[in-house]
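Notes from hallway chat w/ T.B., transcribed later so I don't forget. T.B. wanted the structure written out for a chain they're using in a teaching module, and asked if we could keep both sequence and structure tokens in one place. Agreed to drop them here.
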Amino acid sequence: MDFDYTPKVQELQNRLLQFMTQHVYPNEVGFFREIAENRAKGNAWIPTRIIEELKPKARAAGLW
């Protein structure tokens, strides 16, 4: 049996890893800081600025 991912899935994995490395991982500290600030204001569920900035980039990369 062949359990390898298809070339399409492998390409998607590579694009996702590249996006994570370039955009997500560098923003982790700021993301958690924003969550803490929102929690201190009484609502941890306010959408973060970082996520709102990354959404269009993810869409443009075909990942959203």
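Follow-up for T.B.: The mean pLDDT is 96. Might be a good example for the class.
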